[in-house]
Amino acid sequence: MAEALKDEGYATGFVGKWHLGVNAHSHNDGEHLPYNHGFDYVGTNLPLSNGWFCDEEKWHMSTPETLMCLLYKNATIYQQPYSHYHMSEAFVDDAIDFMRDCQQQRKPFFLYYGIAQPHVDVYSNDGFRGSSKRGRYGDMIREMSWSVGAIMDEVKRLGEDFNTISIFTADNGPHLQLCNEGGDAGVLKGGKMQFWDGGIRVPGIFRWTGHIPPAKISDEVVSQLDIFPTLMSIVGGSVPDDRKMDGQDISSTLFNWWPEPQPEPVAVKQLYKQHEVTHSEPRMLVFYCEAQLFAVRYGSYKFHFTTQKTWTKEGNHAEPGRCGDGGFPLDNNIECASCGNLMPECFTYYKTPLMYNIYKDPNEAYPLNGSLPEHKAVLDEMMPRLEAFKADMVIAPPLLASRSTATIPCCTPGTFPDCTCNYVYEGPVPPPGSASQTGHTSEEFLEMISSHDYDYSMWYD
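^ that's the sequence the OP posted. Answer follows.
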């Protein structure tokens, strides 16, 4: 998406969590980093993740895992392992600097801010610590909310509110195995690393002042795959035509003043003529884990061909050694997180898929009787479309299937695997592959960051 928007004249910037790979051949080639994927500006970023293994507060670990906890500026490591202290402020500062530079140059911009929260509550800054009734997890959510609000406020301050479309979404549901510290999917079943709706149904908030009606709620079935073709349509560009694109342009859903009814299978229209709509066919979304088919969404229906063990907070608490006092997690449980090939005991496979009506049963608690004519008709309508989808699909070799210790990032390669550094680059964003890691001490950097006049109070109850 960044490459395509660059072709349309947009400046492209990235800050925050990347987690799409780092190196391909050596410890510092950076082949998978943002600057190699269309981003002109790459500020403070986490090339990997932000989880339990980077716990510097010693809630869950005595020390962070050095090889997993990296903080970069563009393609240069400057903290390994990193400190969470004022990390959110660093992301926000870089995002604001990028937007201001774009305005000064009178250039439209695309900013991707990969929020580092809320995997698990390993840290909150002093401005948020102890501020939420939800405890440490709530404190972390408040810090996330502040960072988004600070960037949105800057868009308004720059006078670009009517020219800027903002999208807030997430990559997965809550990590339920972490007891009371992994989030909550509410009425939805399942969570992270699962294909129940609690794992794949995430917030999708679009804002464009003067263009998208405020407080509009749509029941349309959409996907994050739709963001790319939708943005390209809005800017007057086009998506690549050398491959099959699963995403669709959802501009009509965003800009219509009144919600459109969700298209239903033909079989349902025949039963309920009064609900007949103008769409030719319902939206179909297909969910795979690697090459294993798990689920299909088809209009208001959901089909499961493979299911995983379902975690609940009550179930976690009932298992010895899983949850401590007040739901404090006692281990970093990622049980049943594979695609089925490594943990067959965690999965159930169905020749005839389980079928649910998601609108009537959002918890996916009551499977429909597939032998009833009205349900069988929907299944029979969906299956040819699924087979056509599978026949048209090309399974590419995974980019990260093979891993070598030679590609693990290390700021002091001569000491691998004991890699430790705490630098701050002085001056412009370092160029890709820069070996320079000198400048301010970490204490001086934190003083500079903390000198910004941030107002946290507006995010408290």
